[in-house]
Design goal:
About 35% of the residues lie in helices and about 30% in strands. The protein has helices spanning about 45-55, 85-90, 105-120, 125, 135-145, 165-180, 195-210, 245-255; strands at about 5-20, 20-30, 35-40, 60-70, 75, 90-95, 100-105, 160, 185, 215-220, 230-235, 240-245.
């Protein structure tokens, strides 16, 4: 079901260090539910840093600025929250290199997270709906997996254990579609994918955006943006946000590269 409650993540004046080195310098941007934002830039520019910082990675230290979650004109600071607390607010992060978790099946991982959350929110006491059954959840999971070209057998296997790079990326999208976050931070999901896998990943991103989630899609290349047309494109270079605009910004990068763009002094 679409998420009709509009929310926003607002980043203002964000300066971040790691190991004493400044990696983000004065970032200002906001993402509203239902929007797709592409975050582009050269290697080492700070794109992944921003995503991991928003998710609460303790590796990064905020020395200035704010990150707020805004809902119904109420503003909540999320920088003091742990990663699991941010996840409970509906923030999801996919990884460039998802790790294997031997002994934990795809089905059980998602059942423990998504099914628990759904049953907590959909009770007879709350809104007249019975809790979601395990069988109903499995059938929906299988349907979603099939739409991503994931064989049912993968749902029984340990998550990412022995999976190819493309299969791991599809698993990240499967988790996103099942969990239905309010904000999806997607860190280079397109890296290393062939064109068929890329189209499947893009389909999942379009689907989560259509459901009402806000998406921050981190990428080096414009290739995936041909299948997922972003509402806004941001360019980060040397830790600074140097340009934001429409999809035409991505086409400019495709034509001229990042070199002509200079950082803000």
């Amino acid at each position: 079901m679409p998420n009709n409650s509009m929310e926003k993540i607002e980043v203002r004046g964000l300066r971040v260090t790691v190991g004493g080195k400044e990696v983000l310098d004065g970032i200002d941007l906001s993402i509203t539910t239902g929007e797709v934002h592409a975050l582009m830039g050269p290697n080492g520019s700070g794109k992944s840093t921003l995503a991991h910082l928003l998710m609460g990675d303790p590796t990064y230290k905020v020395i200035e600025g704010s990150v707020d979650l805004i809902k119904n004109n109420n503003r909540s600071d999320i920088l003091s929250l742990s990663p699991d607390e941010r996840a409970s607010l509906g923030i999801f992060l996919s990884f460039q290199n998802p790790v294997a978790i031997p002994g934990v099946s795809v089905f059980n991982l998602l059942r423990m997270g998504a099914l628990k959350n759904k049953n907590n929110s959909k009770t007879k006491k709350d809104n007249g709906h019975a809790p979601v059954s395990v069988l109903a959840f499995y059938n929906q999971l299988k349907k979603t997996a099939t739409s991503l070209g994931i064989d049912e057998e993968f749902l029984k296997r340990s998550i990412n254990d022995g999976f190819s790079g493309g299969e791991r990326k599809k698993m990240e999208v499967l988790q996103m579609l099942v969990l239905q976050p309010k904000f999806a931070l997607l860190d280079e999901l397109d890296t290393g994918l062939d064109v068929d896998a890329l189209k499947i990943i893009a389909k999942g991103i379009r689907q989560i955006a259509k459901s009402g989630s806000g998406v921050m899609l981190i990428t080096h290349y414009t290739r995936i943006l041909e299948y997922v047309k972003p509402d806004v494109v941001h360019i980060i270079k040397q830790g600074k946000l140097i340009k934001s605009g429409s999809y035409s910004v991505a086409k400019e990068i495709e034509k001229h590269g990042y070199d002509p763009l200079t950082t803000v002094s």
